[in-house]
Amino acid sequence: MDDPLVNVQKRMDRLKRRIYKAPTPFVPGNKYTWVFGFTPLDKAVLWGPYTTDSEAELNAIGLDSYELFHLGTVDTAKASRMVKHELIARGADPDDAMRRLIHKHTEEEPIMKKKRWF
Known about the structure:
With about 120 residues, the chain is an alpha+beta fold. The chain has a domain at about 30-105. Helices cover about 35% and strands about 20% of the residues. The chain has helices at about 5-15, 55-60, 75-90, 95; strands spanning about 30-40, 45-50, 65-70. It has a three-stranded antiparallel β-sheet, sandwiched between helices.
């Protein structure tokens, strides 16, 4: 028989590897902090929303470079559009600004997609 404590320990280890964040409640008129940055693998990410700058900076530690944006939305899709618009307005290359953003905050290596053979 398996030891029940070993199974519990395995589950706890699995939970520790994942980062869970409670949804941020939307309050009209509030500004929320979003982290836009680049991973060591040069993937563009947009993480948030966070209620404080210090919370956002703590979550941005693993990024090569990042910038904090203060937006009035908790919607991820809307925040992506707003950040891309701001980057283009600053004079960034449109191809770089419009590239796909990763929204999931994980510490694990990205999983390679299977090739399609059709």
